[in-house]
Design a protein that fits this description.
heterodimer; A: 273 residues; Rossmann fold; six-stranded mixed sheet; 10 strands; B: Rossmann fold; 2 domains; four-stranded antiparallel sheet
């Protein structure tokens, strides 16, 4: 469990990025943190594995304050996948990249081999085992970054903007993958402004604005609230917009998924599939 | 009149045996707003690099087939000749911006063309105004937010007053409202100045309504090429796994159950209008 208590954070250049954030992420939860560029989303989640330490307030990971723990200790529990894979990747081959953290955590070589094979397979990267990460496309590099974190099997996985640079098919794969990870009991925290992606996942949504939490709740509640969505510099899902414009005909105003939309319309029109 | 014409284009990066694009033919008319999309690694960026001559002149290798852009045969003209006709906005604005102020960055391309001082000043003022970054002109580009940087990158290219603007996922780092603003800026340039726009984009839910021509690539080839509504509604687009707009998907789901809307929607405003017709008729 991650508990954030009245967290303030100021960068060395005096930019106050977080101004009193309180939030609890329970074990096994799936949370999407959304909001405009510069709202403090990435700054917040960088506190979850101790990459940043609170200026004021505290962050507890399973009851332990992050100020007292090292990043190495925290990282074992909380894996962080960076927004830009180039900030994370540096080894000469994909295999070495994925082995790197495992070696640092002191896993045995046989275990490392097994885990690397497992992670490569999981993310469809097996054919790139001996390839340099820098020869891969942006989308592929992102998957290498994800594989290198999943390989050590952290309890909490944080993904910072996982859908950027991914095409639709890869996003679909990623979505199924995240949902599956979550179903297996992993806590998943996604930082994103990809509204359509969140609509299809429907996690708990936390909206941030200027270093504070603006709102939180179910995706169906938050993403269909036009004024909240606009304040957070988002655009509501296409389906939501369409249904809201038809509210005068009695259509529900909390629809975010295309499958639900189609079911509701067919019901109204008394078409039985 | 065609501004870009490619016939039997094929290219492999030096040291690679497989072609990144192959057997590729397209015609893009002057003033069109084109969306170029397809799975990642399909050759979109490679094709964009051909349009302004980075391929073959910078990346090396041989560009096979014929490619004419704004009347210039790409293989026979230098990057600097092509640069004044075709502007390329990179995916990551950090790769493009480097000067100490926005103004200097926007002026850089013009200075390189050896343009007179007064004209540079005029063009910079104009480009900064068109992209809405006037307040930022003295700021350092590296201090700006992603959205601001992307607008500055567009200003740099716009200052060259190109016939064609190629934008490679120019909004990938932006929040949806920021992305919408960029699309509005690009759309304005297309409609007001008749600049031909080629936009590489995955976020079709936001971008589709601006396009009058969609090209879908897969594995180095062009798979679909034509009018957006027709293409998004096609079986092939779905099979390749292009993220067609959600309201177009809704249209398809309804069609499968014999509920027909009058036309194929790509944006929510038209979807609600079309659905309203069906729902009201059903009640009437």
């Amino acid at each position: 469990m991650i508990e954030v208590k009245d967290l303030y954070f100021t960068y060395p250049n005096d930019v106050e990025a977080l101004k009193g954030v309180s939030l609890t992420v329970s074990d096994g939860e799936f949370v999407a943190i959304m909001g405009q560029n510069g709202a403090g989303k990435t700054t917040l989640v960088k506190h979850f594995n101790g990459l940043l330490k609170p200026s004021k307030g505290e962050v507890l990971v399973d009851g332990v304050g992050t100020k007292r723990a090292s990043v190495a200790q925290l990282a074992r529990k909380v894996g962080f996948v960076f927004q830009n894979p180039d900030h994370q990747l540096f080894c000469e081959t994909v295999e070495e990249e994925i082995s790197f953290a495992l070696r640092n955590f002191g896993f045995k070589e046989t275990t490392i081999k097994r885990r690397v094979t497992w992670a490569l397979n999981l993310l469809g990267l097996t054919q790139y085992r001996q390839t340099s990460p820098f020869m891969l496309s942006g989308g592929e590099r992102k998957r290498v970054a994800l594989a290198s974190v999943l390989a050590w099997n952290p309890e909490v996985v944080i993904l910072d903007e996982p859908t950027i640079g991914q095409d639709y098919q890869q996003k679909e794969t990623l979505r199924q993958f995240i949902v599956q990870l979550n179903a297996q009991g992993k806590t998943v925290v996604v930082v994103t402004h990809d509204v359509e992606f969140v609509a299809e996942c429907s996690p708990r949504v936390v909206l941030m604005l200027q270093g504070k939490i603006l709102a939180e709740g179910k995706a169906e509640e938050v993403l269909t609230n036009l004024s909240l969505v606009a304040q957070a510099s988002l655009v509501p899902p296409q389906i939501t917009q369409t249904f809201l414009e038809l509210a005068d005909l009695g259509l529900p105003t909390n629809v975010i998924k295309v499958h639900d939309a189609s079911r509701i319309l067919l019901n109204l029109l008394e078409v039985t599939p | 009149m065609a501004i870009i014409e490619a016939k039997g284009l094929a290219y492999a990066y030096p040291g690679r045996t497989n072609h990144s694009i192959k057997d590729l033919s397209i015609t893009i008319e002057r003033g069109e707003f084109v969306i170029l999309t397809g799975p990642s690694g399909c050759g979109k960026t490679t094709l964009c690099r051909c349009f302004n001559g980075l391929i073959p002149h910078f990346y090396g290798g041989k560009l096979e087939g014929d490619l004419t852009v704004a009347g210039l045969n790409v293989s026979e003209h230098s990057i600097s000749e092509l640069a004044s006709r075709v502007g390329l906005v990179f995916q990551n604005p950090e790769n493009q911006l480097f000067a100490l102020s926005v103004e200097k960055d926007v002026a850089f391309g013009l200075e390189n063309l050896g343009m007179p001082r007064e004209e540079i000043r005029e063009r910079v003022d104009w480009a900064i105004k068109m992209t809405g970054v006037e307040d930022l002109r003295d700021r350092a580009p590296h201090e700006l937010s992603g959205g601001q940087q992307q607008r500055v990158a567009i200003a740099c290219v716009l200052a060259m007053q190109p016939d064609v603007m190629v934008l490679d996922e120019p909004t990938s780092f932006l929040d949806p409202l920021g992305a919408q603003t960029i699309f509005e800026v690009i759309n304005g340039l297309n409609k007001k100045l008749e600049i031909t726009v080629i936009l590489v984009e995955h976020r079709l839910d936001l971008a589709s309504k601006y396009a009058d021509h969609v090209i879908i690539m897969d594995r180095g080839k062009i798979i679909l090429d034509g009018e957006p509504r027709k293409i998004f509604d096609s079986e092939e687009a779905r099979l390749i796994g292009v993220g067609i707009p959600r309201v177009t998907r809704l249209y398809q789901f309804l069609k499968e159950q014999d509920v027909y809307l009058r036309k194929v929607p790509v944006a929510s405003e038209e979807a609600s209008q079309l659905l309203r017709e069906v729902l009201v008729r059903d009640r009437g």
